[in-house]
Each structure stands twice: as structure tokens, then as C-alpha cells.
Design brief:
alpha+beta; Creatine Amidinohydrolase, Chain A, domain 1; Creatine Amidinohydrolase; 18 helices; 28 strands; globular
């Protein structure tokens, strides 16, 4: 009997008519450890985003446009019907279930891998279709016979020279927030919040220096729930000194009293373990983590220097290598990773590299596979979005590189993107502004040409943590989180033309003080990223004098910072790349 038949028998035993498998884990993370990849297990589809549903008679899988082709291929020979999410003729999950199930049918989900908010929304949508949502147990717990275990990699201490603040002090700051809310404690489920608050790191999650755990912080006690074999005597001694107790991961429970939970990130089952009053509130840790201290800022600067050296060496190598032939999207990704790995304190890449040549550059989240990998030619544009995890900082950078002759359309789009990047980089703004209030600066020039991009313009970057960090963002839709000094933010406008090319220019920036006056404090962005921006595609006549001045000053800054660290050949290449336009 195959897994679908076994699942359907399980559904009958549970008095369920369907079960929904999301792409999430109990910690609402961007990357999911193999243990929780139940959607991939049941469907065979291994894309990063998607939802699988199995009923007693049907099966379907929803995924977005990035994976339409891959999903179609991987679902061949399976019972799953591909649902192309967001297309006008594609029903929602609730609508489809309403079509294939009788009224009053019970639809199951695993409450450990669905958040409070997602359960509420899905329950409401199913109720509209005459269906009932049931938070059942996890069928994979019994049916997935060769299921990978929960990761048990060792936990490491992040040295205070990089963390900049003792964990015990961070916890006391959090307790002040709990007292302000008249709360008795909080449950922290997101792994980067836990890692930051405890000054611990791990290797349980792809591209992110995290470890699987929960953290419960009360007004008197703090308890870390994790697999005990992960904790060495040294780490146990460290936890004792910071006032953090230790319990097994599977023993997680809620303390008594008024407990603060974030409904957007806390899983439904854990929330329902709360024994008394539940206070729903956005993460209390995320705003603390977003404002970097002096040690973290210094770490970013050191990490960006090392990253810049690796990038210069890569860029100097790239064009001659492409002209010689034999380079592909995957091969250049490997080359760049190898150069970064030579740098001190390198730990990993910070996300899967996006190396999109030509038309692939128009696929915003493209990731080359052996099936899609194409050779690079000495013409057109290469969009390269990459980053690294160094123990003292996380990097994220995009450069669009002319590999040879370009069309006028490519040059125009490249210049429009650069103008947007510079306009946002130059802005001075009142402290407390939201990212949405600044977003138009990155889009103004392209909007005048009837062009736009649909992804966010900027996100926070962790300090040897997740490359995507909130709560602050820069994007078109309203993001109320205020921008304050000490936050990091990327600046990454782009233009993408299907079947033609893509352009994106991205730096990681630090928000710093600009001035004080009768209208309060004003802030500015200072670039952290140190890497030349390709000037060969620029249509200079489209640039304003102040935009040209900013670019020349940025390149002088890049040269001044990196040149002392380079050998003569790399230094000469950088000098030419940073020549004023």
C-alpha cells in the first residue's frame, strides 16, 4: 500500500475527509529542516513554497509561478493535480475543498506547523464553504517510516565580542516589556529571536546559523527547550551563568499567568497550551534585535570588508572566464562561494545564490538547477544576488553585470534601477518614518516610464542570523514598523522583463543619525556593502548631477576601504572599476 492509500486509511480512522500539508515548521521559519518537509514527503514536490492536500478521493498541490514547470514535471505519475496559485482561474484551497467535499466535511491540519493567524483565516474560509477545520495530529508521525530526525547539531556560543550584550541583559530588557504589558511571561518560537536573545548559534537550518528550540521567558525564570544532546558542558555552564534553565525540546509547556504570544508566528498547538490568559502581541524580541549595538555594527563592517575582497576577486575573474567559455550559472556560483570561503570567519552562504543570466534574470527568485543551468556568453546581463554568513556579520548584495554588448533597452532599464537605488540611498528622513513612506523614491524614475517591480524594496539583515529580518521593511504595501537609527536595511530596486532580462542593484545599508532640529531627529542611510557597481551599462545622460556625485563618492569609498586589502592586480582592477563617470 502506497503512502497516499495509507494516508486515506488514516483519514478514515480520524473521521477526516482531507488533510492539508503546508511548507512550514513549528517555528515559522523561512527554511524548514528536513524533518518537517511533510508536503514534499506526501507529494514528491520539493520546491520551497507550496501546499499539498489529500482527500479521500482527490489530491492537489498549490504553488507559485516560480515552480509551475518544476511542479508539473515532479507531479507526473502522482495523484496530485497542479494548482497554479494566484492565477485568475485557480480556486483557493478553501474553494477547491468546497467543490470536492460534501458539506460538513472535516478537514485536518497539524496544529504544530500552522500559526494562530493561519488557523483562524483557514477556519473562516472553510466555514464559508460549509466545511470544518480540525487541528488533528500529524499523520507523518506514524506513516513516514524513514522520516529524518529533528536536527541535533551542537549549539555554539556567540562570543560577546560579536554579540555586544550579555544574554542576561537582553532578557532583563525583555522583562521590562513584559511588565509594561502587565504580562507574566512570553513564549518565543522563532529560532532567530531565540538565537539572538541567548547569544547562541547552531547549524540546524539551511543558510541560517540557528538551532531548533523554544524559549519561555518569565518575570523570574527563563527556560530553553531543546534537544539535550545538543548542549555541551561548556554551553550548559554558559546557560547557568546567564540564568537560563534547560529542558528537553519535547517538554515545552506554557507557564502559568498572562502569556504574550505572537499570533503571526506562534504555532496553534503551543498557543493552546497556555493555561490562563493569552495576550496576543507582535514579537517583543524582533524590534530589540533589529537595532544593532556597536559591536554588531563593527562586525558588519569587518564582514563587509572580507566580503568585498571576495567579490572583487570574483568580478575580476568573471568576464575573462566567460569570454574563455565553459562557465554556467552554477559554476560561477561555486566560484564565488569558494572565494568567500577563503575569508576568515566564513561560516556559510546566507541564502541560495540567484545567478540569472539573460532571460533567467527576469525570474525574481530564480535558482539554477542542473536542469535549468545555462552557459554564460560574452553579451547581455547577469543578475547575481548572493550573500555570506560570517561569524561577525551577514551580507546580502546584488550586482547586475554586463558580460558584453547590451541592447539600448537593457542599458535603459539598468540605469532606471540604478537611479532608484541612488535616490533611496540619498534620502534624509524623520526618525520613526515607515519604510512605505520611502518606497516611492526607489520606484519614481521607473514609474515615469510605466515600469515597476512587485517585490519589496528593502528588508533588515541579521547579525550572523537570518538574512531576512524584520519587523521593518521598505515596500509598497503599508509596513508600519518605524525606521530608527541602528537598523540595517537593504536597498534593492529592480526591473524584470519576462523572456528578456532582469536588473537589480542591492546594497545593505545602516540607518544612522543625520541631524537634530526643531522638527526632531532626522536619519540617513550609510552603505555597508563594499563592491563596485558596474558602470559600463549606464546611460549617463539619464543620470542627474547629484546621482552621478553619489555614485562617484560611493566608488571612492569602496576603493579606499578595499584597496589596502588587495594584491596589486586586484587593486588595479578595482581602481578602474571605481573610476568616476
Amino acid at each position: 500500500m502506497n503512502k497516499i492509500e495509507l494516508l486515506r486509511q488514516w483519514l478514515r480512522d480520524q473521521n477526516l475527509s482531507a488533510f492539508i500539508f503546508p511548507s512550514t515548521d513549528p517555528h515559522c521559519g523561512e527554511y524548514v529542516p528536513d524533518h518537517w518537509k511533510t508536503r514534499e514527503w506526501i507529494s514528491g514536490f520539493n520546491g520551497s513554497a507550496g501546499t499539498a492536500i489529500v482527500t479521500l478521493d482527490d489530491a492537489a498541490l498549490w504553488t507559485d509561478s516560480r515552480y509551475f514547470l518544476a511542479a508539473e514535471e515532479q507531479l507526473k505519475g502522482t495523484p496530485f493535480l497542479l494548482m497554479k496559485d494566484k492565477l485568475s482561474d485557480t480556486p483557493t484551497i478553501a474553494q477547491w475543498l468546497g467543490q470536492v467535499l460534501p458539506n460538513d466535511s472535516r478537514v485536518g491540519i497539524d496544529g504544530w506547523v500552522n500559526t494562530i493567524d493561519s488557523v483562524r483565516q483557514l477556519s473562516q474560509e472553510l466555514r464559508f464553504e460549509g466545511l470544518e477545520l480540525v487541528t488533528a495530529s500529524d499523520p507523518a508521525a506514524t506513516l513516514w517510516t524513514d522520516r529524518p530526525p529533528i536536527p541535533i547539531n551542537p549549539i555554539e556560543i556567540q562570543p560577546i565580542e560579536y554579540a555586544g550584550e550579555e544574554a542576561s541583559h537582553k532578557i532583563e530588557r525583555l522583562r521590562k516589556e513584559l511588565r509594561r504589558l502587565h504580562a507574566d511571561g512570553t513564549i518565543i518560537t522563532q529560532l532567530d529571536d531565540i538565537a539572538w536573545l541567548t547569544n547562541l548559534r547552531g547549524t540546524d537550518v539551511h543558510c541560517c546559523p540557528l538551532f531548533v528550540a523554544y524559549l519561555v521567558v518569565g518575570l523570574q525564570e527563563t527556560t530553553l527547550f531543546t534537544e539535550l544532546s545538543k548542549v555541551s558542558p561548556k554551553v550548559k555552564e554558559y546557560l547557568d551563568k546567564q540564568g537560563i534553565q534547560l529542558e528537553s525540546y519535547d517538554k515545552v509547556h506554557c507557564p502559568m499567568g498572562r502569556i504574550v504570544l505572537d499570533p503571526a508566528t506562534c504555532n496553534y498547538y503551543l498557543a493552546n497550551l497556555a493555561q490562563q490568559e493569552r495576550i496576543e502581541h507582535k514579537s517583543l524580541v524582533a524590534p530589540m534585535k533589529a537595532i544593532k549595538n556597536e559591536a554588531e555594527i563593527a562586525g558588519y563592517r569587518r564582514a563587509m570588508l572580507r566580503d568585498g575582497v571576495a567579490l572583487v576577486r570574483f568580478l575580476r575573474w568573471l568576464k575573462p572566464a566567460v569570454e574563455a567559455g565553459g562557465q554556467t550559472e552554477i559554476s560561477i556560483d561555486r566560484k564565488l562561494t569558494a572565494l568567500r570561503a577563503e575569508q576568515p570567519l566564513f561560516r556559510d552562504i546566507s541564502f541560495d545564490t540567484i545567478a540569472g543570466y539573460g532571460a533567467h534574470g527576469a525570474i525574481v527568485h530564480y535558482e539554477a538547477t542542473p536542469e535549468t543551468d545555462i552557459p554564460l556568453e560574452p553579451r547581455g546581463l547577469l543578475l547575481l544576488d548572493s550573500g555570506a554568513q560570517y561569524q561577525d556579520g551577514t551580507t546580502d548584495i546584488t550586482r547586475t553585470i554586463a558580460l558584453g554588448p547590451l541592447t539600448e533597452e537593457e542599458r535603459t532599464d539598468y540605469t532606471l534601477v540604478l537611479k532608484g537605488h541612488i535616490r533611496l540611498a540619498m534620502v534624509k528622513f524623520p526618525s520613526g518614518s515607515s519604510g512605505t513612506q520611502l518606497d516611492v523614491l526607489a520606484r519614481y524614475a521607473m514609474w515615469q516610464q510605466g515600469l515597476n517591480f512587485l517585490h519589496g524594496t528593502g528588508h533588515g539583515v541579521g547579525s550572523y542570523l537570518n538574512v531576512h529580518e524584520g519587523p521593518h521593511q521598505i515596500r509598497m504595501n503599508y509596513m508600519p514598523a518605524p525606521l530608527v537609527a541602528g537598523m540595517t536595511l537593504t536597498n534593492e530596486p529592480g526591473i524584470y522583463k519576462t523572456g528578456k532580462h532582469g536588473c537589480r542593484t542591492e546594497n545593505t545599508q545602516l540607518i544612522t543619525h543625520y541631524c537634530d532640529g526643531e522638527f526632531g531627529e532626522f536619519l540617513q542611510f550609510k552603505p555597508l556593502t563594499l563592491c563596485p557597481i558596474d558602470t559600463t551599462p549606464i546611460r549617463r545622460e539619464m543620470m542627474t548631477p547629484d546621482e552621478i556625485e553619489w555614485l562617484n563618492q560611493y566608488h571612492q569609498h569602496v576603493y579606499d576601504e578595499l584597496a589596502p586589502l588587495l594584491d596589486p592586480e586586484d587593486k588595479e582592477w578595482l581602481r578602474e572599476a571605481c573610476t568616476p563617470i
